[in-house]
Amino acid sequence: MSLHVAIAGATGVVGAEFLRLLEERAFPVASLRLMASARSAGRRLAFRGTEIEVEDLAEASFEGVDVAFFSAGSAQKAHARRAAEAGTLVVDNSSAFRMDPDVPLVVPQVNGDRARDHKGIIANPNCSTILLVMAIAPIERQVPIRRIVVSTYQAVSGSGAAALAELEQQAADEREGRPLTPSVYPMPIHGNVIPFVQAFDADAITTEEWKMVKETQRILERPELAVSATCVRVPVRRAHSEAVNLELERAVTPDEARTWLDAAPGVTVVDDPAAMRFPTPRDADGGDDVLVGRIRRDPGRPEALDLWLTGDQIRKGAALNAVEIAEHLFEVPAR
Q1: Is the pLDDT of residue 305 over 90?
Q2: Which of 9, 247, 250, 273 could make an SS bond with 71 (beta carbons 3.0 to 4.6 A apart)?
Q3: Is residue 133 domain-resident?
Q4: Do 35 and 141 sit in the same domain of this protein?
């Protein structure tokens, strides 16, 4: 089987990761079309030993395209619908469709069968949500979760190439004694921790925090599940981390949780405190698995567990999850 593939948003950080993943995983690409905004049209990007010219997404036709990976932002919603109407399966990485009841919200290792309910579009969840549900779904399958409290430590890659450049520039500016000038973020990110991601609502909850609440409930099919999130931006390049407290229906030992997580695809347990082994974002950078460790009892609640996780925001948190959705639907053999 070979598929005609398109990438919308091909010149962005996630678009570049799509190109790498399609090569690394030997995805069955019969033809590849690259699309982006008008200002990027005409650029040429390398793929499998050749160069492909980037098309203007606004003018591009999707006729004959089997699957299109969209990472062009929620403003490109109309183009995603246009592609679906042309018969293309759209896997969309923006927030545009995530809460649309007609669009499945999918993490293949957690609710992959939901992908088959699509009507032309499948939504890729928020990066922090993907990493969270990968680590908690294996536990939820064994013992229902009553409440989740999660604090994120989110890499600047989640804000795109401009944020990565800003982090590097501020580090250089500090070394040279120059003032740090923020642009992407409301204050300098270098050497700092910013408890704010995206925008505040009237209750001082951020957009990112609401995403984690609503998307986790939807993926686990637990609309009543209590979820509390605090989302924080940290000066790390591309791997997100999360501290998670799970209140469960019954007490679960750390060894039980480790056993369930060890058996879960896409999860690697790194948990040996005596040997100082636990996951860090450096370990996760460039990898495919969600790393989980620091699995321990909550000393204040016998039916609760604490754990720590980290995963690459651009790979499993974005491009890899989308490619895995397509592999699952088209039954592409695992590589």
Answers
A1: yes
A2: 9
A3: yes
A4: no
CATH number at residue 43: 3.40.50.720
**3-class SS string, the chain:** CCEEEEEECCCCHHHHHHHHHHHHCCCCEEEEEEEECCCCCCCEEEECCEEEEEEECCCCCCCCCCEEEECCCHHHHHHHHHHHHCCCEEEECCCCCCCCCCCCECCHHHHHHHHHHCCCEEECCCHHHHHHHHHHHHHHCCCCEEEEEEEEEECHHHHCHHHHHHHHHHHHHHHCCCCCCCCCCCCCCCCCCECCCCCECCCCCEHHHHHHHHHHHHHHCCCCCEEEEEEEECCCCCEEEEEEEEEECCCCCHHHHHHHHHCCCCEEECCEHHHCECCCHHHHCCCCCEEEEEEEECCCCCCEEEEEEEEECCHHHHHHHHHHHHHHHCCCCCC
The one catalytic residue among 79, 118, 231, 240:
240
CATH code, 180: 3.30.360.10
**Structural domain includes residue 292:** yes
In this structure, is residue 334 part of a structural domain?
A: no
pTM: 0.97
Q: Are residues 219 and 322 in the same domain?
A: no
12: pLDDT confidence band, cut at 50, 70 and 90? Answer: very high
Choose the catalytic residue: 4, 127, 190, 231.
127
Residue 27 CA, distance from chain mean position: 20
Active site residue 231: no
Residue 335 has pLDDT above 70, yes or no: no
* Residues of the domain holding 29: 3-125+318-329
